[in-house]
UniProtKB/TrEMBL annotation:
Compartment annotation: Membrane
Cellular-component GO terms for this entry: membrane
Pfam families the record matches: 7TM_GPCR_Sra (PF02117)
Organism: Caenorhabditis remanei
Keywords: Membrane, Transmembrane, Transmembrane helix
UniProt membrane topology term: Multi-pass membrane protein
Protein name: Uncharacterized protein
Length: 348
């Protein structure tokens, strides 16, 4: 076996460390938990009347991207796990084999595609919310359907295109520790992609906050039109959920992007042992010596893991608010004049 296809000493040490094995086991647990909560979130989304159908469809697509990312990431963790076990029992006598970059091409594209899918999906969600906010009265069911269909298909097509563009013209030579490691010739494109995703998510967060503020301002401006009030409540609850998802993604994408450049800067000045300990305990996998060598930096599994939890949290918060409001109306005893005055204030 060629020396190039054998794991270097730093990777061998990494595979033999107990904390790395524990991180792999934690990854398996996280993947299983993600499956369960994604299913639970999917059921709750379609049972919740305060979310519009377009938002339900796109949130379901977002859950699909997050689950698929976890599946492919779990495959890479499993490969690393069995390599560690084989090495422990002495099955690998001469060296621990690495994976061919060419063999990893499809899995790497899938990981990048599902990552971009989560980002593009949130962008599509906020664009749909923007249309719903600007064209409130003219936003008919036919327009909603058209936008839903366009966003639903543009997002996966853009994700596929992004995955192929990242490795475009890359000969995919050499060997990598795992398939989430960025190929050598694709590092620059990946950096541009990560920075673009962060800027895009930041803009989406700003738009979501502005739309939320607008909806909140006009929440009680529809007087006694119950259907309009309900539509406003749908817009507010949908936008609040999208806003929280976008803010959360922005935080992790900031870590995801800035972390690459910081670790590249400090890597030459710290020992491999300290470096590996650091990246393991912050749940990232990173391998780099210079800008010309391969590296990977993973915080996206946390985003995929937390998406269903955040959706479930928002749905439960909405339900608690409704129950609290109903209980408040049931417990408060008012005279007829007090009730009329309260209605006047509410609908003014």
């Amino acid at each position: 076996m060629s020396n190039l296809s054998c794991a270097p000493p730093t990777d061998v040490d990494r595979l033999r460390r107990p904390d790395f094995l524990l991180s792999l086991v934690a990854g398996f647990i996280i993947t299983g938990v993600t499956f369960y909560y994604a299913y639970l979130a999917l059921c709750l989304i379609w049972k919740t009347p305060t979310y519009e159908r377009t938002a339900k469809t796109l949130l379901s697509q977002l859950l699909f991207f997050s689950v698929m990312y976890e599946i492919f990431y779990c495959i890479e963790e499993f490969i690393s796990f069995y390599k560690s076990i084989f090495d422990f029992f002495g099955i690998y006598q001469e060296c621990i084999p690495l994976q061919s970059a060419l063999d990893c091409a499809l899995r790497f594209k899938c990981l990048m595609g599902f990552t971009s899918g989560m980002i593009y999906n949130q962008t599509g969600l906020i664009i749909e919310r923007l249309f719903a906010t600007i064209f409130t009265e003219k936003y008919t069911n036919k327009i909603k359907l058209n936008i839903r269909v366009i966003v639903f298909w543009v997002v996966p097509l853009s994700s596929i295109l992004t995955a192929y563009l990242i490795v475009l013209d890359d000969p995919l030579e050499g060997y990598v520790f795992a398939c989430y490691v960025i190929p050598r010739q694709s590092i620059l494109r990946t950096k541009i992609f990560l920075v673009t995703c962060f800027v895009l998510t930041l803009l989406v967060s700003i738009m979501a906050l502005l739309i939320r503020k607008h909806n909140k301002k006009y929440e009680f401006s529809t007087r006694f039109k119950v259907s309009s009030r309900f539509q406003n409540r749908q817009a507010i609850e949908t936008t609040n959920t999208i806003c929280i998802l976008s803010l959360f993604s922005s935080i992790f994408l900031f870590i995801y992007t800035v972390g690459i450049f910081v670790l590249l800067a400090v890597r030459p000045s710290i020992s491999p042992f300290v470096f590996n300990i650091f990246v393991t305990y912050v749940y990232v996998s990173f391998q780099s010596l210079t800008f010309k060598q391969k590296f990977d930096f993973q915080t996206i599994p946390f985003v995929a893991f937390m998406i269903p939890h955040l959706i479930i949290y928002r749905i439960r918060v909405t339900r608690r608010k409704r129950v609290h409001a109903l209980n408040g109306f049931a417990q408060v005893k008012q005279t007829q004049d007090e009730h009329i005055n309260e209605l006047r204030v509410m609908w003014s």
